Amino acid sequence: MSNPASITLLKDGGVFPQQAGDTILRAALRAGKGLTYECNSGGCGGCKFDLIEGAVEELWPEAPGLTERDRRRGRRLACQCRAVGDVAIAAATAPEYVPHIAPKRQQARLAQVREITHDIREFRFVASEDADFLPGQYAMLDLPGLASSRPYSLANTANGRREWHFQIRRVQHGQGSHVLFDRLAVGNEIGLDGPYGTAHLRPEAPRDLVCVAGGSGLAPMISVARGADEAGMLEGRRLHFFYGARTPRDVCGEDMLRQLPGFGSAIEFIPVVSLPHDGGDWTGRTGYVHDELIRVLPRPLADYEFYFAGPPPMTQALQELLMLGHKVPFGQIHFDRFF
Protein backbone atom coordinates (compact mmCIF):
# COMPACT_ATOMS: atom_id res chain seq x y z
CA MET A 1 0.00 0.00 0.00
CA SER A 2 1.46 3.37 -1.01
CA ASN A 3 2.15 6.07 1.52
CA PRO A 4 -0.31 8.98 1.69
CA ALA A 5 0.62 12.22 -0.01
CA SER A 6 1.89 14.97 2.26
CA ILE A 7 0.29 18.41 1.89
CA THR A 8 2.00 21.50 3.24
CA LEU A 9 -0.32 24.40 3.94
CA LEU A 10 1.68 27.60 3.69
CA LYS A 11 1.23 30.59 6.01
CA ASP A 12 0.50 28.49 9.10
CA GLY A 13 3.17 25.90 8.33
CA GLY A 14 0.80 22.99 8.77
CA VAL A 15 1.48 19.62 7.17
CA PHE A 16 -1.19 16.94 6.85
CA PRO A 17 -1.63 13.64 4.97
CA GLN A 18 -3.98 12.92 2.11
CA GLN A 19 -5.29 9.38 2.30
CA ALA A 20 -6.45 7.41 -0.74
CA GLY A 21 -9.71 8.73 -2.16
CA ASP A 22 -9.60 12.08 -0.37
CA THR A 23 -9.55 15.47 -2.02
CA ILE A 24 -7.22 18.12 -0.64
CA LEU A 25 -10.19 19.78 1.08
CA ARG A 26 -11.43 16.63 2.78
CA ALA A 27 -7.89 15.73 3.84
CA ALA A 28 -7.44 19.18 5.36
CA LEU A 29 -10.72 19.08 7.28
CA ARG A 30 -10.02 15.54 8.50
CA ALA A 31 -6.73 16.86 9.85
CA GLY A 32 -8.47 19.74 11.64
CA LYS A 33 -7.33 22.47 9.25
CA GLY A 34 -9.77 25.34 8.72
CA LEU A 35 -9.70 25.67 4.91
CA THR A 36 -12.54 27.89 3.77
CA TYR A 37 -15.31 26.07 1.87
CA GLU A 38 -19.08 25.66 1.55
CA CYS A 39 -20.50 23.20 -0.97
CA ASN A 40 -17.65 20.65 -1.16
CA SER A 41 -18.74 19.82 -4.71
CA GLY A 42 -17.22 22.37 -7.10
CA GLY A 43 -20.01 24.93 -7.30
CA CYS A 44 -19.34 27.74 -4.84
CA GLY A 45 -15.63 28.51 -5.27
CA GLY A 46 -15.10 28.86 -1.54
CA CYS A 47 -12.07 26.54 -1.44
CA LYS A 48 -9.84 28.10 -4.12
CA PHE A 49 -6.12 27.63 -3.65
CA ASP A 50 -2.78 28.24 -5.36
CA LEU A 51 -0.51 25.30 -6.06
CA ILE A 52 3.03 26.33 -5.04
CA GLU A 53 4.90 23.03 -5.40
CA GLY A 54 4.08 19.57 -6.70
CA ALA A 55 1.29 18.24 -8.91
CA VAL A 56 -2.43 17.62 -8.51
CA GLU A 57 -5.11 15.64 -10.30
CA GLU A 58 -8.15 17.78 -11.17
CA LEU A 59 -11.36 15.79 -10.80
CA TRP A 60 -13.62 18.35 -12.49
CA PRO A 61 -11.58 20.87 -14.52
CA GLU A 62 -14.75 22.64 -15.72
CA ALA A 63 -16.21 23.11 -12.22
CA PRO A 64 -18.31 26.32 -12.13
CA GLY A 65 -16.69 27.42 -8.89
CA LEU A 66 -13.72 28.71 -10.92
CA THR A 67 -13.99 31.77 -13.12
CA GLU A 68 -12.02 32.19 -16.33
CA ARG A 69 -9.81 34.65 -14.49
CA ASP A 70 -9.14 32.00 -11.82
CA ARG A 71 -8.12 29.53 -14.49
CA ARG A 72 -5.79 32.01 -16.15
CA ARG A 73 -4.13 32.55 -12.78
CA GLY A 74 -3.77 28.81 -12.27
CA ARG A 75 -6.10 28.67 -9.30
CA ARG A 76 -7.77 25.40 -8.35
CA LEU A 77 -10.53 24.07 -6.10
CA ALA A 78 -9.44 22.03 -3.08
CA CYS A 79 -12.69 20.03 -3.23
CA GLN A 80 -11.93 18.99 -6.83
CA CYS A 81 -8.20 18.20 -6.58
CA ARG A 82 -6.12 15.34 -5.28
CA ALA A 83 -2.42 15.66 -4.61
CA VAL A 84 -0.17 13.51 -6.78
CA GLY A 85 2.74 13.05 -4.43
CA ASP A 86 3.76 15.73 -1.95
CA VAL A 87 2.51 19.27 -2.60
CA ALA A 88 2.60 22.75 -1.06
CA ILE A 89 -0.44 25.01 -1.38
CA ALA A 90 -1.52 28.52 -0.41
CA ALA A 91 -5.18 28.61 0.66
CA ALA A 92 -7.45 30.80 2.75
CA THR A 93 -8.11 29.56 6.28
CA ALA A 94 -10.22 30.82 9.16
CA PRO A 95 -10.95 29.54 12.68
CA GLU A 96 -14.68 29.12 11.99
CA TYR A 97 -13.88 26.48 9.36
CA VAL A 98 -11.99 24.22 11.76
CA PRO A 99 -14.35 21.23 12.15
CA HIS A 100 -16.07 20.79 15.50
CA ILE A 101 -16.40 17.12 14.56
CA ALA A 102 -13.79 15.60 12.26
CA PRO A 103 -15.43 14.06 9.17
CA LYS A 104 -14.96 10.31 8.75
CA ARG A 105 -15.70 7.73 6.09
CA GLN A 106 -17.99 4.79 6.85
CA GLN A 107 -20.48 2.47 5.20
CA ALA A 108 -24.20 3.05 5.56
CA ARG A 109 -27.19 0.83 4.79
CA LEU A 110 -30.50 2.19 3.50
CA ALA A 111 -33.02 1.26 6.18
CA GLN A 112 -36.18 3.19 5.26
CA VAL A 113 -37.66 5.49 2.63
CA ARG A 114 -40.75 7.66 3.11
CA GLU A 115 -42.58 10.15 0.93
CA ILE A 116 -42.66 13.79 2.05
CA THR A 117 -44.10 15.42 -1.09
CA HIS A 118 -44.60 14.39 -4.72
CA ASP A 119 -40.88 14.99 -5.35
CA ILE A 120 -39.16 14.87 -1.93
CA ARG A 121 -38.38 11.67 -0.05
CA GLU A 122 -36.64 10.98 3.23
CA PHE A 123 -33.90 8.38 3.03
CA ARG A 124 -32.86 6.92 6.37
CA PHE A 125 -29.46 5.24 6.55
CA VAL A 126 -27.91 3.27 9.40
CA ALA A 127 -24.14 3.71 9.42
CA SER A 128 -21.50 1.21 10.44
CA GLU A 129 -20.20 3.47 13.20
CA ASP A 130 -21.54 6.69 14.72
CA ALA A 131 -24.03 9.42 13.80
CA ASP A 132 -22.13 12.38 15.20
CA PHE A 133 -22.88 15.75 13.59
CA LEU A 134 -24.21 19.22 14.36
CA PRO A 135 -27.75 20.31 13.45
CA GLY A 136 -27.68 21.85 9.98
CA GLN A 137 -24.65 19.97 8.63
CA TYR A 138 -24.43 17.71 5.59
CA ALA A 139 -22.63 14.56 4.47
CA MET A 140 -21.10 13.37 1.20
CA LEU A 141 -22.73 10.23 -0.22
CA ASP A 142 -20.89 7.84 -2.52
CA LEU A 143 -23.64 6.35 -4.67
CA PRO A 144 -23.32 3.31 -6.96
CA GLY A 145 -22.43 4.12 -10.54
CA LEU A 146 -21.38 7.73 -9.87
CA ALA A 147 -17.77 8.84 -10.09
CA SER A 148 -18.05 11.67 -7.57
CA SER A 149 -19.69 12.13 -4.17
CA ARG A 150 -22.93 14.08 -3.73
CA PRO A 151 -23.60 16.45 -0.79
CA TYR A 152 -26.92 16.06 1.04
CA SER A 153 -28.09 17.80 4.20
CA LEU A 154 -29.18 15.96 7.30
CA ALA A 155 -32.70 16.29 8.71
CA ASN A 156 -32.21 14.60 12.08
CA THR A 157 -29.77 15.25 14.91
CA ALA A 158 -26.84 13.30 16.33
CA ASN A 159 -27.92 10.02 17.89
CA GLY A 160 -26.70 6.73 19.32
CA ARG A 161 -28.71 4.67 16.82
CA ARG A 162 -26.20 5.45 14.02
CA GLU A 163 -29.02 6.95 11.91
CA TRP A 164 -28.44 9.60 9.24
CA HIS A 165 -31.65 10.99 7.69
CA PHE A 166 -31.63 12.88 4.38
CA GLN A 167 -34.59 14.64 2.76
CA ILE A 168 -33.85 14.75 -0.95
CA ARG A 169 -35.71 16.25 -3.89
CA ARG A 170 -35.88 14.50 -7.23
CA VAL A 171 -34.04 16.73 -9.71
CA GLN A 172 -34.65 16.39 -13.43
CA HIS A 173 -31.47 15.02 -15.00
CA GLY A 174 -29.92 14.84 -11.50
CA GLN A 175 -27.71 11.76 -11.40
CA GLY A 176 -27.63 11.56 -7.61
CA SER A 177 -31.37 11.77 -7.09
CA HIS A 178 -31.90 9.32 -9.98
CA VAL A 179 -29.83 6.70 -8.16
CA LEU A 180 -31.55 7.35 -4.84
CA PHE A 181 -35.11 7.41 -6.18
CA ASP A 182 -34.91 4.76 -8.90
CA ARG A 183 -32.02 2.39 -8.23
CA LEU A 184 -31.27 2.20 -4.51
CA ALA A 185 -33.29 -0.34 -2.52
CA VAL A 186 -33.71 -0.85 1.21
CA GLY A 187 -30.77 -2.94 2.39
CA ASN A 188 -28.30 -1.52 -0.15
CA GLU A 189 -25.06 -0.03 1.15
CA ILE A 190 -23.35 3.21 0.15
CA GLY A 191 -20.34 5.20 1.32
CA LEU A 192 -20.98 8.07 3.72
CA ASP A 193 -18.44 10.75 4.60
CA GLY A 194 -19.19 13.49 7.10
CA PRO A 195 -20.11 15.68 8.71
CA TYR A 196 -19.37 18.83 6.71
CA GLY A 197 -20.72 22.37 6.64
CA THR A 198 -20.45 25.49 8.77
CA ALA A 199 -24.12 26.59 8.73
CA HIS A 200 -24.86 24.62 11.87
CA LEU A 201 -26.86 25.62 14.91
CA ARG A 202 -25.21 28.10 17.30
CA PRO A 203 -26.67 27.27 20.76
CA GLU A 204 -24.71 30.13 22.32
CA ALA A 205 -26.51 32.81 20.26
CA PRO A 206 -29.04 34.59 22.54
CA ARG A 207 -31.50 35.79 19.87
CA ASP A 208 -34.78 34.38 18.57
CA LEU A 209 -34.25 32.07 15.59
CA VAL A 210 -35.48 32.35 12.02
CA CYS A 211 -35.27 29.34 9.70
CA VAL A 212 -36.03 29.81 6.01
CA ALA A 213 -36.29 26.73 3.78
CA GLY A 214 -37.11 26.18 0.13
CA GLY A 215 -37.33 22.82 -1.64
CA SER A 216 -35.11 20.18 -0.06
CA GLY A 217 -33.53 22.95 1.99
CA LEU A 218 -36.18 21.68 4.38
CA ALA A 219 -33.76 19.04 5.71
CA PRO A 220 -31.12 21.23 7.39
CA MET A 221 -33.75 23.64 8.71
CA ILE A 222 -35.72 20.78 10.31
CA SER A 223 -32.42 19.61 11.80
CA VAL A 224 -31.75 23.09 13.21
CA ALA A 225 -35.28 23.26 14.69
CA ARG A 226 -34.91 19.82 16.27
CA GLY A 227 -31.48 20.72 17.58
CA ALA A 228 -32.74 23.96 19.10
CA ASP A 229 -35.47 22.04 20.89
CA GLU A 230 -33.05 19.40 22.18
CA ALA A 231 -30.65 22.09 23.42
CA GLY A 232 -33.39 23.85 25.40
CA MET A 233 -33.00 26.97 23.27
CA LEU A 234 -36.76 27.48 22.89
CA GLU A 235 -37.34 28.06 26.56
CA GLY A 236 -37.88 31.81 26.52
CA ARG A 237 -37.05 32.17 22.83
CA ARG A 238 -39.06 31.79 19.63
CA LEU A 239 -38.38 30.03 16.35
CA HIS A 240 -40.02 31.42 13.21
CA PHE A 241 -39.93 28.71 10.51
CA PHE A 242 -40.62 29.93 6.96
CA TYR A 243 -41.09 27.50 4.09
CA GLY A 244 -41.08 28.83 0.52
CA ALA A 245 -42.93 26.60 -1.97
CA ARG A 246 -43.72 27.03 -5.66
CA THR A 247 -47.20 25.45 -5.56
CA PRO A 248 -49.61 24.33 -2.81
CA ARG A 249 -48.62 20.67 -3.20
CA ASP A 250 -44.97 21.57 -2.53
CA VAL A 251 -45.66 22.83 1.01
CA CYS A 252 -44.13 20.57 3.67
CA GLY A 253 -42.51 20.52 7.08
CA GLU A 254 -45.37 21.36 9.41
CA ASP A 255 -45.98 17.74 10.46
CA MET A 256 -42.34 17.41 11.60
CA LEU A 257 -42.43 20.68 13.55
CA ARG A 258 -45.70 19.65 15.23
CA GLN A 259 -43.82 16.80 16.87
CA LEU A 260 -41.72 19.31 18.83
CA PRO A 261 -43.09 20.38 22.25
CA GLY A 262 -42.93 24.09 21.50
CA PHE A 263 -45.03 24.02 18.32
CA GLY A 264 -47.77 26.65 18.43
CA SER A 265 -46.11 28.58 21.24
CA ALA A 266 -42.35 28.86 20.77
CA ILE A 267 -42.40 27.52 17.19
CA GLU A 268 -44.35 29.21 14.39
CA PHE A 269 -44.67 27.68 10.90
CA ILE A 270 -45.14 30.18 8.04
CA PRO A 271 -45.59 28.62 4.56
CA VAL A 272 -45.46 30.93 1.53
CA VAL A 273 -46.50 29.89 -1.99
CA SER A 274 -45.30 31.74 -5.10
CA LEU A 275 -47.74 30.08 -7.57
CA PRO A 276 -50.91 29.71 -5.48
CA HIS A 277 -53.25 28.73 -8.36
CA ASP A 278 -51.00 26.05 -9.85
CA GLY A 279 -52.56 22.67 -9.13
CA GLY A 280 -54.61 23.53 -6.05
CA ASP A 281 -56.40 26.11 -3.96
CA TRP A 282 -54.29 28.12 -1.54
CA THR A 283 -55.64 30.60 0.97
CA GLY A 284 -52.41 31.25 2.86
CA ARG A 285 -49.53 33.64 2.26
CA THR A 286 -48.40 34.16 -1.31
CA GLY A 287 -45.35 35.62 -3.03
CA TYR A 288 -41.66 35.10 -2.34
CA VAL A 289 -40.64 33.81 1.05
CA HIS A 290 -37.96 36.43 1.67
CA ASP A 291 -40.52 39.22 1.27
CA GLU A 292 -42.61 37.71 4.07
CA LEU A 293 -39.84 38.13 6.65
CA ILE A 294 -40.44 41.86 6.82
CA ARG A 295 -44.21 41.47 7.07
CA VAL A 296 -44.21 38.66 9.67
CA LEU A 297 -41.33 39.28 12.05
CA PRO A 298 -42.31 41.73 14.78
CA ARG A 299 -38.87 43.20 15.46
CA PRO A 300 -36.05 44.62 13.28
CA LEU A 301 -34.33 41.83 11.35
CA ALA A 302 -31.00 42.54 13.04
CA ASP A 303 -32.54 41.23 16.28
CA TYR A 304 -32.68 37.63 14.96
CA GLU A 305 -30.34 34.71 14.23
CA PHE A 306 -30.93 33.51 10.67
CA TYR A 307 -30.50 30.03 9.17
CA PHE A 308 -31.54 29.28 5.60
CA ALA A 309 -31.21 26.70 2.84
CA GLY A 310 -32.78 26.35 -0.57
CA PRO A 311 -32.44 27.20 -4.26
CA PRO A 312 -29.66 29.69 -5.14
CA PRO A 313 -32.06 32.50 -6.15
CA MET A 314 -33.75 32.28 -2.75
CA THR A 315 -30.51 32.28 -0.77
CA GLN A 316 -29.12 35.16 -2.86
CA ALA A 317 -32.27 37.23 -2.28
CA LEU A 318 -32.06 36.54 1.45
CA GLN A 319 -28.41 37.58 1.63
CA GLU A 320 -29.16 40.87 -0.09
CA LEU A 321 -32.24 41.52 2.05
CA LEU A 322 -30.49 40.80 5.34
CA MET A 323 -27.02 42.20 4.80
CA LEU A 324 -27.65 45.08 2.42
CA GLY A 325 -31.25 45.98 3.13
CA HIS A 326 -31.36 45.55 6.90
CA LYS A 327 -27.71 45.55 8.02
CA VAL A 328 -27.96 42.19 9.80
CA PRO A 329 -24.43 41.35 11.05
CA PHE A 330 -22.82 38.59 8.99
CA GLY A 331 -22.19 36.58 12.17
CA GLN A 332 -25.96 36.19 12.59
CA ILE A 333 -26.47 34.69 9.10
CA HIS A 334 -25.82 30.98 8.52
CA PHE A 335 -26.07 29.14 5.19
CA ASP A 336 -24.05 26.83 2.95
CA ARG A 337 -24.13 27.53 -0.79
CA PHE A 338 -25.12 24.68 -3.07
CA PHE A 339 -25.68 24.72 -6.83
* CATH homologous superfamily (4th level) name of the largest domain: Nucleotide-binding domain of ferredoxin-NADP reductase (FNR) module
- Structural class determined from secondary elements: alpha/beta
Q: Let me know the number of strands.
A: 17
The string of secondary-structure elements, in order, is EEHEHEEEEEEEHEEHEHEEHEHE
| CATH class placement of the largest domain | Alpha Beta
Separation, N- and C-terminal Cα atoms: 36 Å
Principal-axes shape call: globular
* Rg on CA atoms, Å: 20 Å
CATH topology of the largest domain: Rossmann fold
By CATH, the architecture of the largest domain is named 3-Layer(aba) Sandwich
The total of helices stands at 7
- Provide the residue-averaged pLDDT: 95
> Helix share of residues?
10-25%
Measured by DSSP, the beta-strand proportion falls in 25-35%
List low-pLDDT spans.
Answer: none
Strand order, sheet with most strands: 9-8-11-6-7-10
Please, could you describe this protein's structure?
There is one protein chain. The protein has 339 residues and is of the alpha/beta class. The chain folds into three domains: 93 residues, Ubiquitin-like (UB roll) (Roll); 93 residues, Translation factors (Elongation Factor Tu (Ef-tu), domain 3, Beta Barrel); 127 residues, 3-Layer(aba) Sandwich (Rossmann fold). Helices cover 18% and strands 32% of the residues. It is built from seven helices and 17 strands. The strands form three sheets. Strands 9-8-11-6-7-10 form a six-stranded antiparallel beta sheet. A six-stranded parallel beta sheet has the order 15-14-13-12-16-17, with helices on both faces. A five-stranded mixed beta sheet has the order 2-1-5-3-4. Strand 12, helix 4 and strand 13 form a beta-alpha-beta unit. The longest helix has 14 residues. It is globular and about 60 Å long. The chain starts with a strand and ends in a 5-residue tail after the last strand. The relative contact order is 0.12. The model has no long low-confidence stretch (mean pLDDT 95).
